[in-house]
Amino acid sequence: MSAAVGTREPGELLKNGAIQLMLAINALIMIYPLFVMVMSSFKTNAEIFSSPFALPSHFSLANAERVWSETNFVRYLANSVGITMAAVALILLFSTMAAYAIARYQFRLSALVLMFFLSGMTVPLKLAIIPLFIQLDSLGLVDSYAGLVLVYVAMGIPSAVFIMTGFLRTLPRELEESARMDGASEFRIMRSIMLPLARPALVIVAIQNAVPIWNDFFFPLVLITSDDLKTLPQGLTVFVGEFTTDWGVLFTGLTLAALPITLLYVVLSKQFISGITQGAVK
C-alpha cells in the first residue's frame, strides 16, 4: 500500500503543479493589461507611443492634476458613486424582503413567486430598450438619476432574490422558532437574527451588482444626455477627441475610475469568499 501511495504522489504533485501554473498564467494575463494602464497614466503621449510597455522614465502626477482640474471627472465620479450606492441599496432592500418571505414562510404560491422573479433572469433588459425608453420618457424619467437607478434595480433584483433565497433556506429554523417563543416580532427576527447570518450572501449580491452597475456604459448612453448627469464610463468618452487624444489623461481617468470598485472588493473580499465557500459546502 505504501508503494502505491508513493507512486501516486509524483502524479499528484505534477497535477497540482500544472494547475498552479495555469492559474499563475491566467493571473498574469488578467493583471498585465491593468499594470500597463496604471503605468501609462504616469507617461506623456510621446512616451506612451515610444515605449508603451516600459516603465515610465519618471513618475509624474501631471496627468492626474489635469484630470482633476481640467475635466468634469469629479462630477462623473460623484454621479457613479451616487447611482451605484442607491441602486445596490434598493436591490438589497427589496430582494432581501422578497427572498426572506419565499425562503422562511410556507405558502401555496411560494414556488410560483420565486419563478416570477427568476423569469427576470431569462430575458436581457437591453432587448427591451425601446419600450423601456418610451415608458421612462412618458414618466419623465429620461435624463435623470431616478430613471437610471430604477433600471439597475429592475436588472439586479431577480438574481439577488435567487441568491438570497438559496442562502436563507439553509439557515436552521430553530433560531427563529426560539426567538418567537421569546416574544420577538417577525421584523426583529429578520433584522437581528437572520440578516447577520446572511451577511456573506448580502456581500455577494452587493459586489455582483455594484461591479456591472459601476462599469455600465449602455444604459447611461441611452438614458442620459446632460453632461452633469453622466457616469464615469460615459464621461470618459469625452477624453477621446475627434482628431487627437491625450492618452495619458485617458489612462489616468481609467485608473481612477477602476480604483473605487477595486478597493470595495478588497475590503469585502473576506466576506465574499466566505459566502461562496459556505454556499458550496451547503
From TrEMBL:
Location within or outside the cell: Cell membrane
GO biological process: transmembrane transport
Superkingdom of the organism of origin: Bacteria
Transmembrane stretches, start-end: 21-42, 76-102, 109-134, 146-168, 189-211, 247-268
Keywords on record: Cell membrane, Membrane, Sugar transport, Transmembrane, Transmembrane helix, Transport
GO cellular component, one term: plasma membrane
Topology versus the membrane: Multi-pass membrane protein
Major localization class: membrane
Keyword RNA-binding tagged: no
Domain ABC transmembrane type-1: 77-268
Short name of any one Pfam family annotated for the protein: BPD_transp_1
Family assignment from sequence similarity: Belongs to the binding-protein-dependent transport system permease family.
Protein name per UniProt: ABC-type sugar transport system, permease component
Source species of the chain: Mesorhizobium australicum (strain HAMBI 3006 / LMG 24608 / WSM2073)
